[in-house]
Amino acid sequence: MSNLLTDNPIALQALMNETLFSTGFTVDENSGVASSSSVAVVNWDSSSEEFVFQGDKSTGVLFILRYPSYPYFSPAAEKAFIKTIGALQLTPENVAIVNLANPQNPNDFKRIMAFFEPKKITLLGVEPASLKLPEITHNSYMKGRIATVFNTFSFEEMFADVNKKKLFWGEFKTFIGN
User: Fold this and answer.
1) How far apart are the two ends of the chain, measured CA to CA in Å?
2) What is the number of alpha carbons within 13 Å of residue 163 lying toward its C-beta?
3) 65 and 90 co-located in one domain
4) φ, ψ for residue 102 (rounded to 5)?
């Protein structure tokens, strides 16, 4: 068996059963990210509820993402997200946003459905297979009995490729409009 080497805090948390302490890092109060010479540590939000999320789950619109380095979005992705949903008369306050990289959030689609009761779900860079969903090609959606799931790229992927951004926007307008 080979040695496993990682500095990913989520992976370490899953693999270790003891509390680890670190010294020599500082926390950026604005982003909630601690940094050192080798590892970034996120100050995760916590909640007494089953999921930690932002926004309002009663509207039926849910965004699922997996950003291990940020509580929700990177600063650039957050600006793009607000601008994108704002063009469709949505705000971060009237949709629900859940980051599956938060160790408190279950990576279980049935529990996500039971807790959020969404009608429209957007997977932002989260592969459907990681939630045990059938394959959904990028920038397309799958209608289920209760909710429709739209699978698309993360904002970082769209920043790197303008074509991905154009494909996303065309389908996303249709998805949210229906």
Assistant:
1) 51
2) 1
3) yes
4) -65, 125
Domain of 63, in residue numbers = 53-177
d(CA 108, CA 130): 9
Alpha carbon 134 to chain centroid, angstroms: 19
pLDDT mean over 44-65:
88
Q: Are residues 173 and 125 in the same domain?
A: yes
Count of alpha carbons within 13 Å of 49, Cβ hemisphere only?
Answer: 12
Query: In this predicted model, what pLDDT tens digit does every residue of 80-130 receive, in sequence order?
Result: 999 999 999 999 999 999 999 999 999 999 999 999 999 999 999 999 999
**142 and 101 assigned to the same domain:** yes
Instruction: Let me know whether 64 and 150 are in one domain.
Output: yes
